[in-house]
Amino acid sequence: xxxxxxxxxLLLLGLLLAFFPGALGTNPGLVARITDKGLEYVARxxxxxxxxxxxxxxxxxxxxxxxxxxxxxxxxxxHSLNIRSxxxxxxALTPIPGQGLSLSISDSFIWAQGKWKVRKSFLKLQGSFDxxxxxVTILVNLLLGSEPxxxxxxxxxxxxxxxxxxxxxxxxxxxWLLNLFHxxxxxxxxxxxxxxxxxxxxxxxxxxxxxxxxxLPVTTEIDRFASIDYSLMEAxxxxxxxxxxxxxxxxxxxxxxxxxxxxxxxxxxxxEHNRMVYFAISDYVFNTASLVYHEAGYLNFSITDDxxxxxxxxxxxxxxxxxxxxxxxxxxxxxxSLAPQMEIEAFVLLPSSxxxxxxxxxxxxxxxxxxxxxxxTSKLTGFLKPEEIxxxxxESKFGVFNVELLEALLNYYILNTxxxxxxDKLTKGFPLPLLKHIQLYDPxxxxxxxxxxxxxxxxxxxx
Length: 463
Fold this sequence. Notes:
Bactericidal permeability-increasing protein, domain 1, 2 domains, Bactericidal permeability-increasing protein, domain 2, six-stranded antiparallel β-sheet, 24% helix
């Protein structure tokens, strides 16, 4: 598959199909939407890539017989056709409701040069020719789908091409002979080219594009704990003005994947068309991430004796903290928040190096969250801003005691050590289902009930 064809394939379908598996009957964690403005841009950029690719095409040779009074019968051959110039002037990529996409190219021009030869009895003559193909129109309908593995599929459901005019200029010895049946040659040229265009389109989709789509990775690895499954949950849904792609968008531990006990919510997307693409990212995405990191013990911590000696000089203490459950991110219009619950257990370190539990604390806090889109990395990033924690003594083996000193210590540790580590992680962000060489700009971020709505324009970075 040529570099330009691959680029065109990525641009035309990668944006629209993105990625992979999912259970039927469940809601997507993420919906990627490309609007009519986005399709218009993709068609325009695709035309540039296609025009470049046309110079690589080998046009077919063709032969014919002729009969001229007083000359007799002979045979001609046109061969070694090379495209010297082409202009693809108009293109459109439009959704076909319930099916997929329609790609049309119109009012285009191709100029090619080649060689001819004529055989008459023992006589062989040859020369060169120019051919101008004017008013080229191509209409291709693409049926988009998904396979059981979750990878996207594409096939050509129909193709038609039309050439308004073919002008052949023949030069060389006895070129006048071929000019005697000039109209016959031009008519044959037109029929062959019209047939060849759709044959090449069908071959490109079947032999190049579809096999390439089957090589797309199923998941994206985030770090040593987590990966994200950008699964196509069903075939892309086309309406009159847009194309929606439903993705699973579930975080999972790539060492051992466990079923998720909750479902993604139903998302009612706003009818907006000002940007080229939109991403509706439900709380399911963030909460499956929280679940993975919680199960991996990412937020577990230990405060050892050297931190506590000044507060409790007569005891060798160690505090071990962990979240009671994975904190869930709550979405409400214009606001994101969490209410993590933590449990801290204190141990006395005995001379035998064993640990004796002595008391247990419950820790609660409210956390506000901020999400932003980093245009330079095409990643969604976050930042947590916690309030001061509230500590409650839940169990003690040496009676009730004042927890204010512990509360102050824990506030200092959590606000200055634990959350900065989490925020460092969040600033690295997680990737959206974008392709290489596609960059988003001019983003607009909205917070709705149960989902985040990101709109942006796209730019194809040529390499």
